[in-house]
Amino acid sequence: MSFMxxxxxxxxxxxxxxxxxxxxxxxxxxxxxxxxxxxxxIPQDYSHLQIRIAAKAVYANNxxxxxxxxxxxxxxxxxxxxxLVGNGSNVSSNAGxxxxxxxxxxxxxxxxxxxxxxxxxVELLDYxxxxxxxTVRVLNGYTNSNNASVSLSSSLWLPTExxxxxxxxxxxxxxxxxxxxxxxxxx
Length: 187
Known about the structure:
By secondary structure, the chain is mainly beta. It has a single domain, classed as Sandwich (Jelly Rolls), CATH 2.60.120. It is about 5% helix and about 45% strand. It is built from 1 helix and 12 strands; from the N terminus they run H-E-E-E-E-E-E-E-E-E-E-E-E. The protein has one helix at about 1-15, and strands at about 20-30, 35-40, 50-55, 65-70, 80-85, 90-100, 100-105, 120-125, 135-145, 150-155, 165-170, 180-185. The strands form 2 sheets. It has an 8-stranded antiparallel beta sheet with strand order 1-12-3-8-9-10-5-6, covered by helices on one side. The protein is globular, with a radius of gyration of 16 Å. Residues about 10-15 have low confidence and may be disordered.
């Protein structure tokens, strides 16, 4: 299911006479000892960004664990979040402010080899604007031996500054080998 979602989005981005999506960078995690990854030099000549994530964490139990992002190495409570999560039988929602990291969905762990990767498709709207806040939309899905869920969230980054760096972590646990983070510029 996870890679199917990314495949559908890839085919939509490449379809039609020309693509409005430019692949800027892909980080492929190897070795399973990385606790964070980052896009360090984000170009400022696109209208929006899209990030496609397929990841899992290295940990001995089922998890899941939250994948989190941080903009420009910020350390204050700069994020507002609204989230809707469904697992096939229950739906929950919450809202609030986040700490220095923005929640971008859940990913499973390597506990069972049959578990797939958790996926997130993230859109950062007007990420270069210094006149308004950046809005972030996230579609996330994951499955593991205990649960599965799909979530939609919308976040607001409160500073009015251009985003030049995005870093990711999974609650300080290592990110598993085979995880992938791809950054696209949207014209």
